[in-house]
Amino acid sequence: MRNALTKLRSRAAVAVAVTVAGAFGLVAGASAIASVASSTGASASADDAALIKRGEYLARVGDCVACHTAKGGKPFAGGLPMHTPIGIVYSTNITPDAATGIGAYAYADFDNALRHGTSKAGYTLYPAMPYPSYAHIQPDDVKALYAYFMHGVAPVYQPHIPNGIRWPLSMRWPLALWRIAFAPDVATGTNAQAADGAAMSLERGRYLVEGLGHCGACHTSRGTLLQEHALTDGGGLAFLQGGVVEQWFANNLRDDRVDGLGEWSREDIVAFLKTGRNTHSAAFGGMRDVVLDSTQYMSEPDLNSIAAYLQSLAPARQQAALVYSNKAALALHAGQTGVPGARTFLDNCAACHRSDGKGYDGVFPRLALSSTVNAQDPTSLISLVLHGASMPGTHSAPTVFTMPAFGQRLNDQQVAEVVTFIRSAWGNQASAVDAGTVQRIRKSSP
Ligand code: HEC
Ligand code: HEC
Ligand code: HEC
């Protein structure tokens, strides 16, 4: 199977390249979507309150609401614009409204969309819908999700917004080739260990991260056809080694000691996912919403399972842990600001992150020895300085601390220098950043 896939992959790559390059993202035939609804009833067995409740929890884990809700719109009613290199695609209405949502979807139709990536009308969905990850969801969990969407979600009449993608890029057949080449086989049996969320287990963690949690959709880098370089840990070290999503770099989540989670304890990871902050870091960018909509609702056993699984991922690089150095702090205290970026740091950043780079626990994150600051890819750091960020206010940590934007006050050269400074001060050891990179990110900012 693997061989056949590899061959298919290279052939499909050639065939698809022209039409789909960039298209993976998202193109969509809106008229087709508008017409998919036909008539079949929901299964009666779905009427089970416990099943619906479990489905609701699983929908949280899968973060369906994130993509299927427009800003200020009704939950799951779709209409969120997703920007792609070839145009805008709008997410669909997945409330049980019969005319404009999925009310007329039989279980098989729902399963086909969720795990197989095919619509009720038979065409292939854009993998902006993370069905390559959802393929790992076990049938029992698909049933619970179906019960929830049919009986636990209020129907909303909201017609699909036509996508802004023109022919020929709006053709869907190349997506079918993409799907055959890159989507994994759909889970059939039930792995009891993975299914049972009552106690912490590595298998449960793997199941949630590789499947419903679709963490790799952001944290794994993508190839030229925008396929994830690995969909599971078995697929290689690229899995969860980090990827850029819009203007943010989703960190390396493997066990690397400098830029990964190698220095985080299991409790650290659980606290980050539950509260959006811990002694190492605070959530921002795309992760802010993941914490707000999804991970803060996860049960303690599930959070611990996820943390244990992430800690089991072999590091991509053998790295010695960084060691704190007080050289930069002493120099800043003594007013020695000859190093490029040091003056900018003192004037703009030190009030919160402090000249020793240690910040204030739970309020202003530390910059010294931080996996975020030492990330191989500096995209997040540049975006943070240009645009600022606000922590997620979660149920267990409601206070929102905000970092101001410096995009108006600092030019590209100054941003590059201050980011380079924090990447080399206090024992940090990350590469320098140049003004050209800052300019590119500033220009492509929404
Ligand atoms: C990262 C964004 C994203 C997430 C997360 C997501 N979806 Fe989707 N989904 C989409 C997009 C975009 C489409 C439309 C794709 C297209 O038009 O080809 C879609 C399509 C669908 C469809 C097909 C609808 C139709 O009209 O045929 C269903 C059903 C669906 N999603 C259910 C879910 C469920 C259930 C979850 C959570 C377990 C979920 N989605 C999570 C982006 C997402
Ligand atoms: C929509 C994209 C997206 C998804 C999906 C996503 N993340 Fe993230 N994640 C990010 C971004 C961007 C960052 C960097 C910003 C930050 O540190 O908050 C990040 C950071 C993190 C961090 C902090 C790493 C560090 O070194 O500071 C952890 C831990 C994490 N994510 C875990 C997860 C887990 C577990 C999942 C799946 C349940 C997940 N993420 C799904 C985008 C995403
Ligand atoms: C008013 C206080 C304040 C100032 C001034 C400030 N920051 Fe921040 N910074 C924060 C807060 C709060 C966060 C957390 C934001 C979030 O998680 O959304 C943060 C986050 C960060 C992070 C990410 C750390 C992590 O692991 O999550 C970096 C890097 C950073 N700031 C760098 C800087 C730089 C460089 C400057 C000066 C140009 C600066 N900050 C100025 C408050 C501040």
Automatic annotation (TrEMBL):
It is found in: Cell membrane. Keywords: Cell membrane, Electron transport, Heme, Iron, Membrane, Metal-binding, Repeat, Signal, Transport. Heme c 1 binds at residues 64, 67-68. One of its GO terms (molecular function) is electron transfer activity. It comes from the Bacteria. Residues 1-23 form the signal peptide. Heme c 2 binds at residues 215, 218-219. Pfam families: Cytochrom_C. Gene3D superfamilies: Cytochrome c-like domain. Its cofactor is heme c. Residues 50-153, 200-314, 336-426 form the Cytochrome c domain. Binds 3 heme c groups covalently per subunit. Heme c 3 binds at residues 349, 352-353. Its main location: membrane. GO terms for cellular component: plasma membrane. This is Mono/diheme cytochrome c family protein.
